[in-house]
Design goal:
The chain has helices at about 25-30, 35-55, 60-75, 75-95, 130-135, 150-155, 175-195, and strands spanning about 15-20, 95-100, 100-105, 115-120, 120-130, 140-145, 170-175. It has about 220 residues and is an alpha+beta fold.
C-alpha cells in the first residue's frame, strides 16, 4: 500500500531511493535542542519559587493565585515538552523519496507537510553531520535552490532552521548518507547541466551535455 508521499510521484518518474530517518537520532535531536537549557533554567527557577511559596505560612491563601500564574509563566517549559512529545508524531510522518526528477520529503506532527524540489532547481548539495549524527552513525543531505533571494529574504532566513528554509530540502538522519549524497550530487550535476547547457533547443534526446537523461 502506497503512503501519501509515494502517491505524489509522477507516472514518468523512477524511484531511486526511499526511506526514513534513524529513530534514535531523530528523537535525541528533538530532546537535546536549543530550547533545553532555557526550559531547564526556567523550570528550576519557577519550581524553586513554587516550593518556597508553598512552604510559607500563607501558602493556602496565596496558592489560589500562584497556580494559574506559574501555569502561564512555565509556558517555555510546556512548549519544550510539547515539542519532545510531538517528535514521535513527526518521526512517524517523516519520509524521503528520491526519483530521477526530484526529491520528495514529508513531515509534520498533527498535520502532514509535503515538500518537493526538482533537480533542475538545485545548485548545491551539502553533507552535514552534527554531534548526534556522528554518535548514531548517520548524516544529513541538504539540497539548496539555485534561486538567489534578495537581502530582505536572507535576513529573514537567518531566523529559520534548515528545515524551515524554503530554499533547502533536507534528507536528515539517514544511515546511508554517503551513498545518498553521491546519488543526489550526480543527479543534480547531470540534470542541472543538461537544463542549462545549450542543447539543440531541447530535442527528445539531448546532445549538448552528453547525459543519458531525455527531455
Amino acid at each position: 500500500m502506497k503512503n501519501d508521499l509515494q502517491n505524489l510521484i509522477g507516472a514518468n518518474e523512477t524511484i531511486l531511493y526511499e526511506g526514513k530517518p534513524d529513530k534514535k537520532c531523530f528523537i535525541a535531536e528533538s530532546i537535546f535542542n536549543k530550547m533545553l537549557p532555557i526550559a531547564i533554567a526556567w523550570g528550576i527557577i519557577d519550581f524553586g519559587l513554587i516550593g518556597l511559596s508553598l512552604s510559607s505560612e500563607d501558602a493556602e491563601e496565596i496558592s489560589f493565585f500562584l497556580i494559574p500564574f506559574f501555569a502561564l509563566h512555565l509556558m517555555p517549559v510546556w512548549f519544550y515538552l510539547a515539542g519532545v512529545i510531538s517528535s514521535f508524531l513527526r518521526y512517524k510522518n517523516t519520509y524521503y523519496i528520491i526519483t530521477d526528477h526530484a526529491i520528495y520529503v514529508s513531515g509534520g506532527a498533527f498535520s502532514k507537510n509535503f515538500k518537493t524540489k526538482p533537480f533542475a532547481e538545485m545548485s548545491h548539495i551539502d553533507l552535514h553531520r552534527g554531534i548526534f549524527d556522528q554518535l548514531f552513525g548517520v548524516g544529513d543531505v541538504i539540497a539548496t535552490s539555485n534561486q538567489f533571494p534578495d537581502s530582505a529574504s536572507l535576513r529573514s532566513r537567518s531566523f529559520l532552521s534548515r528545515e524551515d528554509d524554503a530554499a533547502n530540502i533536507e534528507i536528515s538522519n539517514i544511515a546511508d548518507y554517503s551513498e545518498v549524497f553521491h546519488l543526489v550530487k550526480k543527479l543534480q550535476t547531470d540534470i542541472f547541466s543538461d537544463t542549462m547547457y545549450p542543447n539543440d533547443m531541447r530535442p527528445p534526446e539531448n546532445h549538448g551535455y552528453n547525459t543519458k537523461y531525455r527531455g
